[in-house]
Specification:
This protein is mainly β and 355 residues long. The chain has two helices and 30 strands. Keywords: Repeat, WD repeat.
């Protein structure tokens, strides 16, 4: 739903701009729409259905399917859980979603009918979830057991239970795009890759982040992993070349002034989006490893970010109870971006445009 009252802190509507439901970020000159329906922290916001919709979930125990064009809720699913919904994920090629919560439950829901297909209760507070690209498997992480559960998406039956997978809270779990490995990151500052075929951890990395590793994301071919951390930085890991074993990851410098909560690659891996507790969203050019744009407008922590397949829109979720939809299609025309491209465009090319 569109906001009628722009955030007085850093977002305004320039005189003469009459686009319904629109605001414009004065610092970045990027149009933004504000989606309001949740009444508590929005913990996740993800594009789905060919970028026609956004799926969000919240500490208010609800999940909402939004229409991107109108910025209005299509379906609101209340009281799916008894506590904060920490993450949600669409099952590919279906109308079904998975939600996980601090109430220790995984819920599979049919978006069309609103029917709960199955519930599965685990032994700990569930902090994250991910669905394999073929839609067959669900992975979730549990606290304080530092455990990982891999289950069938169709039935909820647990196939693998990895106990004490980390030494501390697992903050994020992700299937790689091929569904062959599960990446986990943790407040113990480590990164692990668990191989589905070998059924064991094949890669364990000391990230050298200076604080909790809060999120991770893969490029489309699975060759690179990005990690976000409360130490205010992001790092890139070349999993194919394995260079991290000798010299670690590549740090993206001078990005955020607060803890980084989230990260997401564009489909072509030329752009990285990150969200932070400094209330901003940053866009990074991967050919130069440089920050090209900062999006300001949230009045509280940014908890999650997502980028549309065609790189036209960025969605951000926040503790301020809103989802913001940023139109970045014309960002290359912004003088600030053009200047950064000109001065910083000769960086190390570690990611190729065909990834």
């Amino acid at each position: 739903m569109a906001s009628e009252n722009p955030d007085p802190l850093s977002v305004g509507r320039p005189s003469g701009e009459e686009e319904k439901g629109g605001e414009r970020n004065l610092d970045s000159q990027v149009p933004v729409k504000v989606l309001r329906a949740h009444i508590d922290t929005v913990t996740a916001a993800r594009f789905c259905f060919n970028d026609r919709c956004i799926l969000s979930c919240s500490s208010d125990h609800s999940a909402i399917l939004w229409d991107v064009h109108s910025c209005r809720p299509l379906r609101v699913f209340n009281q799916l859980h008894g506590k904060t919904i920490t993450e949600c994920a669409l099952i590919p090629n279906s109308n079904r979603i998975i939600t996980v919560s601090w109430d220790k439950k995984i819920v599979a829901l049919d978006l069309e009918t609103g029917q709960i297909l199955w519930r599965s209760r685990q032994t700990g507070l569930l902090t994250s979830c991910s669905v394999s690209s073929d839609g067959r498997l669900v992975v979730c992480a549990a606290d304080p057991q530092n455990a990982v559960y891999i289950s069938e998406a169709a039935s909820g039956q647990t196939l693998h239970h990895l106990s004490d997978h980390h030494h501390s809270t697992i903050t994020r779990c992700r299937f790689d795009p091929q569904g062959q490995r599960v990446a986990t990151v943790s407040s113990d500052r480590s990164i692990k890759l668990w191989d589905m075929l070998a059924q064991k951890t094949t890669v364990s990395i000391d990230s050298n982040h200076g604080n909790v590793v809060s999120d991770c994301c893969f490029t489309k071919n699975g060759h690179f992993l990005c990690t976000a951390s409360w130490d205010k930085t992001l790092k890139l890991w070349d999993l194919q070349a394995g260079g991290f074993r000798s010299h670690g990851g590549t740090t993206l410098q001078r990005g955020h002034e607060g803890s980084v909560s989230s990260c997401s690659f564009s489909a072509d891996a030329n752009l990285l989006v990150s969200g932070s507790y400094d209330r901003t969203v940053s866009l990074w050019d991967m050919s130069s490893l440089s920050q090209v744009l900062i999006l300001k407008g949230h009045s509280d922590w940014v908890t999650d970010v997502s980028i549309s397949a065609e790189r036209k829109l960025v969605a951000s979720a926040s503790k301020d109870g809103t989802v913001r939809l940023w139109d970045i299609e014309n960002m290359e025309e912004i003088p600030e971006v053009m200047e950064k491209r000109r001065t910083e465009g000769s960086g190390i090319h570690i990611l190729k445009s065909d990834i």
